[in-house]
Amino acid sequence: MTDPTPSPRTPPGRTGERPYGDGTRAVRAGLPEPVKNEPTLPGPVFAAHYHLPGEVEGPYTYGRDTNPTWTLLERAIGELEAPGTDGAETIVFASGMAAVSAVLLSHAAAGDTVVLPDDGYQALPLVRAQLEAYGVEVRTGPTAGDAQLALLDGARLLWLETPSNPGLDVCDIRRLADAAHRGGTLVAVDNTLATPLGQRPLELGADFAVASGTKGLTGHGDLLLGYVVCRTPELAARIRLWRKVVGAIPGPMEAWLAHRSLATLQLRTRQQCANALAVAEALAGRTEVTGLRHPGLPTDPSHPVATRQMGTYGSIVSFTLPDRTHAGRFLDALRLVEDATSFGGVRSTAERRGRWGGDAVPEGFIRFSAGAEDTDDLVADVLRALDLAADASL
Ligand SMILES: *Cc1c(COP(=O)(O)O)cnc(C)c1O
Question: Is 10 within 8 Å of 26 (Cβ atoms)?
Answer without folding.
Answer: no
